[in-house]
Amino acid sequence: MTVATRRSRSCLAASMLLVAVLGGTAATGASAQVAPSTAELRAYDGWLRAAAEGDVPRLRKLIAAGAPLDARDARGRTALHVATHAGRREAIRVLADAGASLDALEADRYDAVTIAAVADDVPTLALLLSLGAKPGQTTSRWDGTALIAAAHLGHDEVVRRLIAAGAPLDHVNNLHWTAAIEAVVL
User: Fold this and answer.
1) Interval 61-83: pLDDT, tens
2) Per the domain annotation, does 113 fall within a domain?
3) What is the number of structural domains in the chain?
4) Rounded-to-integer distance, Cα 57 and Cα 113, Å
5) Is residue 104 part of a domain?
6) How many angstroms separate the CA atoms of 157 and 13, rounded?
7) Backbone angles phi, psi at 141, to 5 degrees
8) What tens digit of pLDDT does each residue of 124-169 get?
9) Residue 139 pairs with which residues in a beta bridge?
10) So what's the pLDDT on residue 12?
């Protein structure tokens, strides 16, 4: 297959995916990720509490004191996951600048990009991608991607951003579905 043919097929797949999502055939309102519960948020102290609250001065103090950037809660969430669930973009930036892993998976195998994609949080997704987070990482128990999740949920702007960032259009999850199939069928 020539390069031109591959590009043409890739463009066709992207167009079909966007038509399906924009056509309103995708489902909405679901969330596979588990955000920290109210009880978990109350129990957080230090690092995770600062991330959840977007307390940037405290995050900076903890970083300066040598706090472990990728320490995890009982569900395997890092401060970056917690900040992403809460939409605390300045905290995300501080954590990333300090060297926190942008692509870490929590216990259910979700990364920050997928968390933002499922939440339809375009500003947080854009920030994560601009900081270097991978748009096509395999995540979840279904071996999906953020693009598959966003297409499934009908998050059209998220789908556009992920495609523009290079998310794989042809990724097949362990249910043998792609983003286009999820957008059309679900």
Assistant:
1) 999 999 999 999 999 999 999 99
2) no
3) 1
4) 24
5) no
6) 17
7) -70, -10
8) 999 999 999 999 999 999 999 999 999 999 999 999 999 999 999 9
9) 144
10) 47
Backbone angles phi, psi at 179, to 5 degrees: -60, -40
32-58: average pLDDT: 93
Domain membership flag for residue 106: no
- Contact present, 77 and 36 (Cβ < 8 Å): yes
pTM confidence score? 0.82
7 falls within a domain: yes
- List residues bridging with 144 in a β-sheet: 139
Domain that holds residue 181: 1-27+135-186
Question: What distance in Å separates the CA atoms of residue 184 and residue 152, rounded to the nearest whole number?
Answer: 8
| Backbone φ and ψ of 139, nearest 5° | -135, 170
Q: With beta carbons less than 8 A apart as the criterion, state whether 20 and 180 touch.
A: yes
> Does 97 score more than 90 pLDDT?
yes
User: What is the SS3 string spanning the chain?
Assistant: CCHHHHHHHHHHHHHHHHHHHHCCCCCCCCCCCCCCCHHHHHHCCHHHHHHHHCCHHHHHHHHHCCCCCCCCCCCCCCHHHHHHHCCCHHHHHHHHHHCCCCCCCCCCCCCHHHHHHHCCCHHHHHHHHHCCCCCCCCECCCCECHHHHHHHHCCHHHHHHHHHCCCCCCCCCCCCCCHHHHHHHC
**For the range 6-9, what are the long-range contacts, defined as Cβ-Cβ under 8 Å and sequence gap of 24 or more?**
none
